[in-house]
Design a protein that fits this description.
With about 180 residues, the protein is of the alpha/beta class. It has six helices and six strands. It binds guanosine-5'-diphosphate and magnesium ion (MG). Belongs to the small GTPase superfamily. Rab family.
């Protein structure tokens, strides 16, 4: 809808996927509310959060979806992916297995969404450097091979959280505008 002559509004759905406990819910709560929960349980009730940013003088809204813990049972439904314009594929840099799962999440995303979905590979928990099991190079080369963006984040200390979401939002905007 547009209120004024020449003003447009954009609304893009973005999904966050990845293994359980990699920090998906905390990345979203850090971005949308500047909150971190050290003892977070599976998200209950909230399906998505909406954040607006301004690009080229236009209001661009991102409707960012978080799983309600279904990923533990590999039961993320097709409705979750439907209509997505962007995706954050999250792993935990201290858990090699979560990095190895990225392939599985990518296959699932591709099965349920358009190939043009803007994708960001996110290595979360970069504050835990001493426990690192996945090198920056491994993250980078996977992203390069697949043509994704790549970033390491910490929902705990806020490193690159805003960037992770906003690079995706800007990419979607530039693809559609
Ligand atoms: P989800 O299952 O992927 O949604 O993961 P959560 O956001 O629930 O986080 C799982 C656990 O990891 C929680 O105990 C969080 O406090 C913790 N956590 C999440 N992000 C970070 C981070 O960037 N750094 C550290 N050190 N812990 C994190
Ligand atoms: Mg969660």
């Amino acid at each position: 809808s547009s209120d004024e002559e020449g003003s447009e509004e954009y609304l893009f759905k973005i999904v966050i996927i990845g293994d359980s406990a990699v920090g998906k819910s905390n990345l979203l709560s850090r971005y949308a509310r500047n909150e971190f929960n050290p003892h977070s349980k599976a998200t209950i009730g909230v399906e998505f959060q909406t954040q607006s940013i301004e690009i080229d003088g236009k209001v661009v809204k991102a409707q960012i979806w978080d799983t309600a813990g279904q990923e533990r049972f590999r039961a993320v439904t097709s409705a979750y992916y439907r209509g997505a314009f962007g995706a954050l594929l999250v792993y935990d840099i201290t858990g090699k297995d979560t990095f190895e799962s990225v392939r599985k999440w990518l296959d699932e995303l591709n099965a349920h969404s358009d190939s043009t979905v803007a994708k960001m590979l996110v290595g979360n928990k970069c504050d835990l450097e001493s426990m690192r099991q996945v090198s920056v190079e491994d993250g980078k080369s996977l992203a390069e091979a697949e043509g994704f963006f790549f970033i390491e984040t910490s929902a705990l200390d806020s490193t690159n959280v805003k960037q992770a979401f906003e690079i995706v939002i800007r990419e979607i905007y530039s693809n559609v505008s």
